[in-house]
Design a protein that fits this description.
Layout (H helix, E strand, L loop, with lengths): L11 E5 L3 H10 L5 E6 L3 E3 L4 H5 L9 E3 H4 L6 E5 L2 E5 L4 E4 L3 E3 L2 E4 L3 E3 L17 H20 L3 H7 L1 E5 L3 H17 L13 E5 L11 H14 L1 E4 L3 E6 L2 E6 L2 E6 L2 E4 L3 E3 L1 H10 L9 E2 L5 E2 L2 E6 L4 E2 L12 H19 L14 E6 L2 E5 L4 E3 L1 H14 L3 H17 L17 E2 L5 E2 L11
Parallel strand pairs: 1-2, 1-9, 2-5, 9-21, 11-12, 11-17, 12-13, 19-22
Antiparallel strand pairs: 3-4, 6-7, 7-8, 10-18, 14-15, 15-16, 20-21, 23-24, 24-25, 26-27
Helix pairs in contact: 1-9, 4-5
Length: 453
Amino acid sequence: MLDVAEQPSPHRVVIVGGGFGGLYAAKMLGRSSAHVTLIDKRNFHLFQPLLYQVATGTLSPADISSPLRGILSDSQNTRILMDEVVDVDPQQQTVITRGQQLEYDTLIVATGVSHHYFGNDHWKTTAPGLKTVEDALDMRRRIFMAFEAAEKESDPEKRKAWLTFVIVGGGPTGVELAGAIAELAFNTLKRDFRTIDTTETRILLLEGMDRILPPYPPELSEKAAISLAKLGVSVQTKTLVTNIADNVVTAKQGDQIEQIPAKTILWAAGVKASSLGQVLCDRTGVGLDRVGRVMVEPDLSISGYPNIFVIGDLANYSHQTEKPLPGVAPVAIQEGQYVARLIKGRIQGKGVSPFKYEEVGSLAVIGQNEAVVDLGFVKLSGAIAWFVWVFAHIYYLIEFDNKLIVMIQWGWNYFTRNRGARLITGEGDLIKVEVDTNGDFRTPTDRKSPVEV
């Protein structure tokens, strides 16, 4: 295989995935001599850390999304294709999309991860996860429809099921969802309904480990649990979900088994690598970890193929510590920037030292004025941590108009406790209460096929 420095000019770089890793690699290569092609199934970059705010009505999808063509419009050497890569041929150095084949000299794969139901994929329709705009809008619809359905329900037990929210998984996404739903129920919505009292809402956060936020220091996990309790969230650790069926969550804690009737079940418990990880394994023999992430070399390439790089959530980089780097935006950004520097260095015949992640800290928000932050040299909680979280997320938003809009929206929400994006859209807009042949309460969204109402 030829070294990059020996390749004819212009050097062809194909980047698969427009998330943090792929986008930052493309931005850094934008003024290089390389010819860059960025391929993504969507025409926009999504700021995933704030998806939960779309799901709970604080922000609209456009507030946290930016068109890829707009971001890279000044990069004249960069072409953007809205397509899906389905295969890779390392010997011929081509990627195969649904529409064409593209040759590359260097390939960067940054296609991320999706939800992982640990062998129970049939739970997906009942307990949606949160990775895409569509996921967030579906989740938003389910959350606000639950309150609407409860307002119409006269049976106390069925109303209780509508006002019960179960979040499976106590990582950052689960904690943020639980806190945001609590603020909705106990603050934003408490004066909006006439039949129900939204402060009777029950919010359960279930975590299989012995504490929430397992990657964080134990003292911050404890503070997060205390903050959630103050908001009205019931945190249950050492609790495993064994079944989800018929709007009932079966949870096991030790020897005790509990069945929790709940109309709204949200999944935040695990991830699995995108299918391109398996494609690379089949085509190159590279190793995968137990969730399908690609085992990469110290320079983020794959063994035997120095011109194929895997970055972001799809990569298992375990050379710096004994554990893989976390699947967070700063890791993906730094990896994308590193690979871009490496490619430019190879084109110029220069070497680059192995990748080293510069720790910038871990952040998780619980509610207004409540967050936990681990910056390594200092650990923060409460209002100070919340402001650090706010400014960090504003900083990482891609475009100026997004930064400005989100800042204004958060400022308005801070003083009014109001959420302006509480629209119910999509299938099942109108709540229609029905009784099925077994006498069970249901709505059209409980069915397996769309129903006109």
